[in-house]
Every structure is written in structure tokens, then in C-alpha cells.
Amino acid sequence: MNVVIIGAGYVGLVSGACFAEFGAYVTCIDTDGQKIQALGENKIPIYEPGLAELVKHNAQAGRLKFCTSLASAVPHADIVFIAVGTPSHELDGQADLQYIHAAAREVAEHLQNYTVVVNKSTVPVGTAREVQLIIKQARPSADFDVASNPEFLREGSAIADFLRPDRVVLGLESARAESLLRELYRPLNLIEAPILVTTPESAEIIKYASNAFLATKISFINEMAQLCEATGADIHSVAKGMGLDRRIGRKFLHAGPGYGGSCFPKDTRALAGMASTHGLSSHIVKATMEVNAAQKGRMIAKIRQALGGSEAGQVIAVLGLTFKPETDDMRDAPALNILPALSDNGAVIKAHDPAGMAAARPLLPDTIQYAQDIDQAILGADAIVIMTEWNQYRGMDLAKIKSVMKGKVFIDLRNIYERDLIEGHGFDYCCVGR
Fold it and tell me: Is 77 strand, coil or helix?
């Protein structure tokens, strides 16, 4: 089967490599010539565990290639995936579909045989219909169908999520399209991955609703963490007690500095915007966004209080910058709100992150220093702040850390340590909801 993927960004590249692993012949197309050249040399522009190896393996096997021209690939394609960016509009938060529409117009120019055109990008409800109309107007005689196949990839574990998914959602209304897409995903039959076939509109909302619900769980547990701090309860116990209820589940019940990344902030804004467009008010989603924004401010106050009421002149070792571990993604990372506020008030920030420092530099104040390793970050520090729960920070030599620090404040915004352990090494421990 010949598959074309338009857009060699995070979603397109991961999807292309995984479809090639399924046995399809995949061409990833991108307008960025430098990116395509780098990919042809197996230079991966994003940090995602296992992706470089998967790309190299399938490129060497002849199942994965990269180019900048739709004209050379689309005419031979059985399925064309559109996986371009859908950034948020600044005013209303809704997804900007200009790249989707442009891709649809260009695909229309090159269609020859029957082809399924699939939206892989996260798009508002009704986009599949728009793509269908654009292609139909440009090429009335074209033999094609349009489908929606949203992605559910977690940064840091995207390969596993694609190869062993919780579900595959196919939004379509054509038996021919369903047959082709089921054939593409046939290797998943071995692990009995559920395939849900529904309408394009339902598929489009499933994506947004899923991310908004997970974001809501995060904001909810952060509100409960505040109550725990006020009453002397332990958010770990509360979250465990909640998560043992199978109707709730334990995932995404981890108190911390708030959610970030490429999906949750953008998708919650877009879902609230879609509701408004249809004359509705999404109260829960809006509250989720408000709680998340406020949580970052509370973390600034928590750090300030742990430092005795003022961060001015104090050296703070910040461990972790990205919004989550196993990614270099800085989009809407809590660090982008917290660190500038501390720096502006006179703190000296020495930051370390295993993968995100290059991406963080242009987004954070020039006053922030970057350490090549944990030892360099903590040397002479008055305080440590764990911002992201990378595995490298979970098993640190606490006795060594204490011996090279100037102060003894240990601020754990991800709750990865136990109070007794940290205080047993002579630190003043501060965490979230405990």
C-alpha cells in the first residue's frame, strides 16, 4: 500500500515511521527543504525516544522516504494523510486551518486514481467536510473520499502509543475508505486493538473531548492538592483512593505545576471556542483552563514562601524545563511562567534539562544560566526546584547534593520524593498537596 503523509512534523513523522513499520510504503512530504534533507540523512529534528531508530530502519528497508513535492507522490497514493500544523488563533483560541486548506487544494491538483484523503491533524468539527468540498470544487471529477483519523500520541511514548494503541478512531462514511484504512491498520489485529468507525464529526470531537477530559483531571487534582495543604491531608493518598475506583482510574491524578505541551492547552482553548461558535458555553473546560493558569502562579508563591518570603539574590537550581519528561517540547511548559517571575524578582536561576535546554534558551530570559549536568546546577545553590520529573532526578545522591549546596531548601513540584527521605538528609522539604 502506498501512503503519503503531508507534514513531517511530530505527528507526521511518527505516523510515517510507524506505518512503514506496518509494511506500507510511505512518503513524508514537507515544504521545509532543510528538514527533508536532514531526515534523508537520518537527522531527526525532534526528541522522541525510539524514533531515530525506527526512521533509519524503515528508510534502509526502502519503505520510508522524504521529499518536498506532492506531484511525485500523490498520484500513486492509496491514502494521503494531512498532518500539518493547526495553531491557535490568538483572539478566540480556535484552530487555524489555513495549512489544512492549502494542503487540500494541492492534493486536489495531483489526484489520479481513487484515493482516501485523511485528516490526521487535530481539527475542529466539520473540517473533514470542508476538505471534501475544497477538493470537490477544485477537481469535480476526482475519485476520492475524505476521512478523519485523529492521533492520540503522548510525547515521550509516541511510538508505543502508535504501535499498541488504546483505540483507532476512523471517521468516515464510505465502505471503500473503511476497507483501505482497515487494511492499513491490519497489523494491529494481532493485539486486538479496538477500531471505532464513526462519522467524521464524531471522530473530530473525540480527539478534543479526550484531551480536555484529561486536562480536567489534572486541574481537578491540583485543586484537591490545595485543599490537602489547607487541611493537612496528603494528595498522594487522596489520588490513590480516587484512582482505585475503576470509574475514575489513577492516571492523570498527579498534582504538580499544571499541564502544558502541544495538545492540552491548544485543544482546551479550541474546544471552548467551538462551543462558543455554536452558541454554547463550555463551563467545565473554561474552569479547567482557569485553574491551570492559576496553578502556575501558586507555584511561584510556593517557591517564594519556601525561600523565606523573597527569592531576591538567591541561587535556585531548577531541574527540568520541558512540560514533561522524555521530550524537548517547551510549548506551554510551566517553566515559561515560573522562571521569568523568579528571575525578574532577583533570583539567580541555574537550569538543567536532559533534552530541552536548546529549545528553552530563546523562550526564557537571558539572565538564566544553563548547566550541562545536575552537579553544575546544584553547586552553591540555595535551593533546588524539581520542575519536570525526568528519571535522572528521581534517584539523585542526596548526601552529595547536600554537601555541595549552599542552602538546604528542596522544592519538589512533582512530588517524586518522600518527605521523610528528604528531611532525613537535612533538607527543608516543600512539595504540592502534602
Answer: coil
User: Which CATH number is 294-430 given?
Assistant: 3.40.50.720
Summarize pLDDT for 110-129 with one digit per residue, the tens: 999 999 999 999 999 999 99
CB distance 434 to 419 below 8 Å:
yes
20, amino acid identity:
A
Which residues are tagged catalytic?
263
Distance CA 107, CA 319 (A): 45
pLDDT tens string 211-270: 999 999 999 999 999 999 999 999 999 999 999 999 999 999 999 999 999 899 999 999
**What gap in Å lies between CA 18 and CA 24, rounded to an integer?**
9
Q: 196 with 168: CB under 8 angstroms?
A: yes
Look at residue 151 in the predicted model and tell me its pLDDT: 96
Topology given in CATH for the domain delimited by 208-290 = N-(1-d-carboxylethyl)-l-norvaline Dehydrogenase; domain 2 (1.10.1040)
Sorted by sequence, the CB contacts under 8 Å of residue 200 that are 6+ apart come out as 128, 129, 146, 147, 148, 171, 172, 173
Enumerate residue ranges in the chain where pLDDT < 70.
Answer: 91
Nearest Cα to Cα of residue 338 among 390, 297, 367: 297
CATH 3.40.50.720 residue ranges in the chain?
2-198, 294-430
Which regions of the chain carry the CATH code 1.10.1040.10?
Answer: 208-290
> Looking at the domain that runs over 2-198, which CATH code has it been given?
3.40.50.720
Q: How many residues does the chain have?
A: 434
Helix 200-231 / helix 235-243 crossing angle, nearest 10 deg: 140
